């Protein structure tokens, strides 16, 4: 007789279903790696390197295992960034960023959006040392699986830029763009996501190497945007380019107040140095304008502030002037909103209401700033667009900078790759 059931008890058949294997291993080691645990006998003998107890009964010196979720392998630019070796630097400052040599495969990045007035971008570096609190391009570090807060701390120097650019222009660039009705060359914008004349340029010279390559060509359409007066170093090359191709230069000056500029753009040159650069470039016969973007609500939009920037730009010889309201992407909001709470607490609620869930300022405010910029241009006689009288006229509808520039910035939410290369 069964020691468990009486002889007369019915016998039930139990069907067992195979247990479903969990998607995530709850073992203290990766399922793709060998089990690092030694045999039970080794544990019992107190083998060095192993704590007493076991995984089911943790002790004070043997805490319970932590859940480890295997990470997906890095791909694309994230993999290249992870493999980038550190670059040598002569800088001794404690606050200097880390530099890495990024082995990119291309330097000319295609932009297919009809909302921006260029077809190609060149960004000699990834990351920017100027550390502008409002910089929209912080998201480009997230493509490399790096936090946007490290945008100014980890700078990636693109290797072999000149050789890559020579190949890219030869293979990709068109001197008769379809969008223009085949009447003008495609436009290349330099510095859309990282300043080409940040301090790293003094050591690594990637921007100058690119300009030297472009100076060998004829019939190009180019623009450069920067906050740095270091650009005057390259006046010799810029003059050569301008003699062969259409070239425009934009210098960004968001405020004339040195202390405010230092607060908003900690490592960028002073506003007066940038305006001096405008003057030198104009005296060299180059086409130069000033942009006061972005306008920071309640911070750089005070009565007469934009007007004073425009007046100083005119005095320096700038040919055009434009500005647009701050557009705040999530990676940038994580940096700017805490900064506003700390330095401008009276504006914290306004910025939170405007930007926490939306990258745009209210349309009414943007329209007001756009109309104000239009009046400024009319007052000082600035051109409406930087390429007036420079680029050949075509059938392509150009963007008027009198239109709210924030709308252009907003499109970056959908065409981020245009600036990220």
Q: Assess the beta-strand content as a share of residues.
A: 5-15%
| Name of the top-level CATH class | Alpha Beta
Looking at the overall shape, the CATH architecture is Alpha-Beta Barrel
Number of domains: 1
> How would a textbook summarize the main sheet?
7 strands, mixed
Structural class: alpha/beta
Shape: globular
- Number of E-state strands: 10
> CATH topology, which one?
TIM Barrel
What share of residues is helical? 25-40%
End-to-end separation in angstroms reads 80 Å
CATH 4th-level superfamily: Aldolase class I
Poorly predicted residue ranges: 1-12, 19-62, 392-417
* Assembly of the depicted chains: single chain
SSE string, helices as H and strands as E: HHEEEEHEHEHHEHEHHEHEHHHHH
Structure in words:
- With 421 residues, this protein is of the alpha/beta class.
- β9, α10 and β10 (321-322) form a beta-alpha-beta unit.
- α4 (161-172) packs parallel to α6 (206-214) and α10 (305-315) packs parallel to α13.
- It has 15 helices and ten strands.
- The chain is globular.
- The strands form two sheets. It has a seven-stranded mixed beta sheet. Strands 1-5-4 form a three-stranded mixed beta sheet, with no helix packed on it.
- The model is unreliable at 1-12, 19-62 and 392-417 (pLDDT under 50).
- The protein has a single domain (76-390, 402-420), classed as TIM Barrel.
- The longest helix has 18 residues, at 363-380.
- Helix content is 32%, strand content 10%.
